[in-house]
Amino acid sequence: MTPDEKCDELKLVLPAPIKLPPNVELPFYEKTAPSWRKNPDLIRKNYLFDADKGIAGGVYLWKEKARAEKWHGADFRKKVKEVYGVEPESQFFETPIVVDNVAGEIAKD
User: Fold this and answer.
1) 64: which residues sit within 8 A by CB, 6+ positions away?
2) DSSP 3-state of 47
3) How do the domains of the chain map onto residue ranges?
4) What's the whole-model pTM score?
5) CA 1/CA 42 separation, integer angstroms
6) Do the beta carbons of residue 65 and residue 92 sit within 8 Å?
7) What CA–CA distance (Å, rounded) separates 41 from 46?
8) Does the domain made of 11-108 have the CATH classification 3.40.50.300?
9) How many CB atoms within 10 Å of residue 67?
10) What is the β-pairing status of strands 92-94 and 42-50?
């Protein structure tokens, strides 16, 4: 995304916090990352983990809320429940400005 590129509405989805059962380890993230990498609707995903509290989750950046809802719908929630044993919590945010220091960009919606 360049500073001049116009995107549809940018959204963040946070399907966390979720308590990790003792048998779930961080290498699981490495197993799921390639499937998110192949997702044509996803701009970026940041995995989150707090070992002290046993909480994990992710921040997903999508161009449109409809795409986030598509990928985080009933099937996704069921899979999360099966893997982690808890229902994920989701929260949507608009992201009107993105500061990307790696790319040297400031992008506005």
Assistant:
1) 8, 9, 11
2) strand
3) 11-108
4) 0.74
5) 13
6) yes
7) 15
8) no
9) 20
10) unpaired
pLDDT digits (tens, 9 = 90+) for 14-47: 444 555 666 566 677 788 899 999 999 998 888 8
Q: What is the CA radius of gyration of the chain?
A: 15
- For 26, phi then psi, to 5°, come to -60, -30
Backbone CA torsion sign across 76, 68, 29, 38:
positive
Q: How far apart are CA 47 and CA 49, in angstroms?
A: 7
Angle, vertex CA 9, rays to CA 7 and CA 12, nearest 5? 110
CA distance 63 to 107: 13
Please give the Cα distance from 20 to 41 (Å, whole number): 27
Is it true that the peptide bond before 27 is cis, omega within 30 degrees of 0?
Answer: no
